[in-house]
Write a structure and sequence with these properties.
With about 240 residues, this protein is an alpha/beta fold. The protein is built from 9 helices and 7 strands; from the N terminus they run H-H-E-H-E-H-E-E-H-E-H-H-E-H-H-E. It has one domain: 3-Layer(aba) Sandwich (Rossmann fold). Helix 3 links the parallel strand 1 and strand 2 (about 65-70). It is globular.
Amino acid sequence: MIQPPPEPSTRITYDSSDLALFAKARNWKTYWSGRLRSYIKGQVIEVGAGLGTSTEYMCKQEYPEWICLDPDPSHASHLAQRIASQELPPFCKVKCCVLKDLAVDVMVDTILYIDVLEHIENDEAEMRVAASHLKRGGQVVVLSPAFNCLYSPFDKTVGHRRRYSTKDIKRLTVKNLVVQKWFFLDSIGFFASLCNRTLLKSPMPSSAQIAIWDRVMVPVSRYADGVFGAVFGKTIVIVWEKV
């Protein structure tokens, strides 16, 4: 039987400068990646890998395979160059596409959405696609901005369709997925985002603002989140397991 040709991969151009700007937030990336690492196992798909600045913080140990997906050709090319130059581990691979473009028989142990799910128009449909590519016992790990009350001109500028709270967990828990864990991060940064939402209304933080947040607020949040992480924070983490 003649097989139909594969559907063309999705191409999307991401023009915002926030990826390069937040790449400098080393304390933040070290903090959240350390909190997520225990949920990452086996073969991994990172959806929307961007410039690979999050990838390098998560890949602190050996994995059988780490597939970096990104629909922006310039990002995919940049990722490939970083792998070739050994800035990213050799077990990383790049595919210029979105998750729904992958063959149905691609099955992995972990699927990551690091500041990505909030950009996707139909996030419930995306979760169904993610579940279909997970092995039994595999996990979907989402890290996204929290609380719509913090939605600001910055969110609009970078293409955030929403921010998330615990009320969204049930909606996103699609067939064959069960919630394993959820928590908030950066409780001190919550107030910085609230200030931007109500007072500054800035469409993009400056390098100086990023530096103050990363060097001053994030280290305090490391301790404060132990108390407030079950209640609020600038960021929410949700982990699902496939049953």
